[in-house]
Automatic annotation (TrEMBL):
Residues 52-168 form the ARMC9 CTLH-like domain. GO terms for cellular component: early endosome membrane; late endosome membrane. Residues 209-238, 294-325 are annotated as: Disordered. It holds the Pfam family CTLH_Armc9. Its main location: other. GO terms for biological process: early endosome to late endosome transport; negative regulation of phosphatidylinositol 3-kinase/protein kinase B signal transduction. The keyword Lipid biosynthesis does not apply. GO terms for molecular function: phosphatidylinositol 3-kinase inhibitor activity. Transmembrane segments: none annotated. This is WD repeat-containing protein 91. Residues 220-230 have a biased composition (Gly residues). Keywords: Endosome.
Length: 325
């Protein structure tokens, strides 16, 4: 509450600076009459009830549009059905009250202004007969809305809905101004601490790089032992500073051909083994032919002898014939 009072004073100073005297008077009046912020739903319900009893359609619609644009539109989509049902019930309550007060002109004015919006809703299809219905409180279609139980239930549901909505509303940005300022200050402090830490790390790295030339010079002047110690220290320093991301792969070109010497040796061995196998098979076939008496050389000699004997036989037979003749 202390924060809200502080912001009220800031708002009052702003209104004085801009010269909004009427708004300032209305703000002062509402602040004097406001006892507790939890009675906001009661005051809004009283405004709705006064608009209905006075048959002030403009005030009723203006108040509902204000709540719908600034409060109901920020709710989840699951509440859209409940909001629409409450709006239609409130309009029906307005019609029933105007009809009960014998204000038929207000009923006709309602349908003249709202017909274009309501004719697209199936819920209002039977209500267009309402201005022409005689004894509407006895009609089965409209009798329920004239009962006190339905009207009290509507006002109670509207009051509970408004109370729940006001309790669940997030604080406006204007009220969270101080909290946002504290949050920004904490972020600035965290940012300054990180900058200091980064600067210290950069200084340590700079000192480490300056110590490396000194260690190499002391290693060369102190002999081989000291040089070995200095080299070990340098390697340890480089090993600490080097990371995996700093290591670059070697650029090794691929070989010009895929076939190697072992493949060539294997192919030569295969060719030699195939030649020796073929020679061995030829010798085996020659020995087999000689042992079986069917040598190719002997076969050719037998064929030549048989051909010579046939020729001599033919000559003898020819000479005999010629001498006989």
């Amino acid at each position: 509450m202390a924060q809200v009072a502080f912001l009220d004073n800031l708002l009052r100073e702003y209104l004085v600076f801009r010269g909004f005297s009427g708004t300032l008077k209305a703000l002062d009046l509402e602040q004097r009459t406001e006892k507790d912020q939890h009675f906001r739903a009661e005051r809004i319900l009283d405004q709705f009830n006064n608009a209905v009893q006075n048959s002030d359609l403009l005030a009723l619609r203006s108040l509902w549009f204000h709540l719908d644009n600034n409060i109901f539109s920020k709710l989840e989509h699951t509440y859209a059905v409940a909001v629409k049902k409450l709006e239609n019930s409130l309009l029906k309550y307005y019609l029933v009250t105007a009809y009960s007060s014998n204000r038929s002109e207000k009923v006709s004015e309602f349908f003249n202004k709202m017909a274009g919006e309501l004719q697209q809703q199936s819920e209002w299809k039977d209500w267009f007969y309402f201005p022409f219905c005689k004894n509407a409180e006895e009609s089965p279609t409209f009798a329920l809305f004239f009962t006190k139980q339905w009207q009290d239930t509507l006002l109670l549901s509207l009051r509970n809905f408004l109370t729940t909505v006001y309790q669940c509303l997030p604080q406006p940005t204007f009220v969270r101004a101080e909290q946002e300022a504290v949050h920004m200050q904490r972020l600035s402090e965290d940012n300054a601490g990180l900058r200091t830490r980064l600067l210290n790390l950069q200084q340590e790295l700079h000192q480490l790089t300056q110590q490396q030339p000194g260690t190499s010079a002391s290693g060369t002047s102190g002999g081989s032992l000291s040089g070995g110690d200095g080299g070990a220290r340098r390697r340890s320093v480089y090993r600490q500073q080097q990371s995996l991301s700093d290591i670059l792969p070697f650029d090794i070109s691929p070989p010009g051909h895929i076939v190697d010497d072992f493949c060539i040796i294997a192919s030569e061995a295969n060719s030699v083994s195939q030649a020796s196998d073929a020679q061995a098979r030829g010798l085996k076939l020659l020995i087999r032919n000689i042992g079986s008496g069917s040598s190719p050389v002997m076969g050719r000699k037998d064929q030549a002898a048989s051909s010579l004997s046939d020729k001599s036989t033919k000559r003898r037979s020819g000479s005999v014939g010629r001498s006989w003749i």
